[in-house]
């Protein structure tokens, strides 16, 4: 009997087995993409097969993986800065948390990872995951976010394109390249909408990350600047180099910002910063403080990563609400 006739008879009999036997499963299709190479920080790593027990270290890396929908390929996560957003909460809860901060090397290896992805170079120290060379020696592939390169000269200029390039590399490593394309398209559409809204037009903004005697602020070359550019607002410290920088309260007072963006993190909450601003005899005289013109952004939405576009959307929405309230 010919193969074609066999398939027809199987179909008539209502038996799906013959059809499924001729079509590869999604996992088999993904396996056909491997091996692949991913490069960051001057290092090229070969991922020999589709990761099945990946471990992500740092919130940025974890959320890229969750955005790509590969939680079923993960054996563990570690080290959050703040809460995972509701849209990924169920996926996050399905993955084991290896440690509140970094796991020990022993605890990480006990999870039997086949791929380790981290946001910061500190994750690849010997006492944590081990160096990438050490992981290679044990057959574990690894990838470090380009934004976390130890050599700052190897880091890309912060941009949404650079964020999407990282997402594309990680999607390649996990065998889900189409998911990266979908994410890039949806985020670009979101940013295009924010540009049309232009909620920050004409507003000067202080991005207050942390600090008291010396304010640590969003500077001109990182996530805060990208968010403020996306909403059309002016960063009063946009002339400072770097992602963040030390500033002075004297310059804040002289600039008189219309709005204060407050980064909300476990180590420096938005409420803590508001309490400081409103208790200081000089700072409480600022127009933005008196008007309570505050915008709150989770720290993880202020760093170059998969949530940066969400951070821009949140800032835009809050600026619109402030405008309505005035």
TrEMBL record:
| Superkingdom in the source lineage | Bacteria
Report the PROSITE patterns cross-referenced here: FE_B12_PBP
Which residues lie within the region annotated Disordered?
14-35
Please give the SUPFAM superfamilies that the UniProt record associates with this protein.
Helical backbone' metal receptor
**Pfam families, per database record:** Peripla_BP_2
The annotated regions of Low complexity compositional bias extend over 14-32
Q: What PANTHER family does the record tag this protein with?
A: IRON(III) DICITRATE-BINDING PROTEIN, VITAMIN B12-BINDING PROTEIN
Q: What is this protein called?
A: ABC transporter substrate-binding protein
């Amino acid at each position: 009997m010919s193969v074609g006739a066999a398939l027809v008879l199987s179909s008539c009999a209502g038996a799906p087995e013959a059809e499924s036997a001729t079509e590869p499963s999604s996992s088999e299709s993904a396996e056909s993409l491997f091996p692949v190479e991913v490069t960051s920080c001057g290092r090229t790593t070969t991922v020999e097969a589709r990761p099945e027990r990946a471990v992500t270290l740092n919130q940025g890396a974890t959320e890229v993986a969750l955005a790509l929908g590969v939680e079923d390929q993960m054996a563990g996560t570690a080290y959050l800065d703040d809460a995972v957003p509701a849209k990924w909460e169920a996926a996050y809860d399905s993955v084991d948390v290896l440690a509140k901060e970094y796991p020990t090397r022993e605890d990480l290896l006990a999870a039997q990872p086949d791929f380790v992805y981290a946001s910061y170079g500190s994750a690849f120290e010997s006492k944590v995951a081990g160096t990438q060379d050490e992981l290679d020696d044990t057959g574990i592939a690894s990838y470090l976010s380009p934004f976390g390169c130890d050599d700052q000269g190897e880091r890309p200029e912060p941009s949404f394109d650079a964020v999407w390039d990282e997402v594309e590399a990680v999607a390649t490593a996990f065998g889900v390249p189409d998911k990266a394309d979908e994410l890039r398209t949806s985020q670009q559409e979101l940013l295009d909408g924010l540009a049309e809204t232009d909620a920050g037009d004409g507003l000067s903004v202080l991005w207050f990350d942390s600090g008291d005697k010396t304010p640590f602020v969003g500077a001109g070359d990182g996530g805060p600047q990208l968010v403020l550019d996306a909403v059309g607002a002016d960063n009063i410290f946009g002339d400072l180099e770097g992602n963040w920088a030390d500033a002075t309260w004297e310059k804040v007072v002289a600039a008189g910002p219309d709005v204060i963006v407050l980064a909300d993190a476990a180590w420096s909450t938005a409420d803590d910063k508001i309490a400081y601003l409103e208790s200081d005899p000089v700072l409480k005289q600022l127009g933005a403080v008196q008007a309570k013109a505050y915008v709150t952004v989770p720290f993880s939405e202020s760093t170059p990563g998969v949530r940066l576009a969400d951070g821009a959307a949140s800032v835009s929405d809050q600026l619109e609400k402030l405008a309505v309230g005035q």
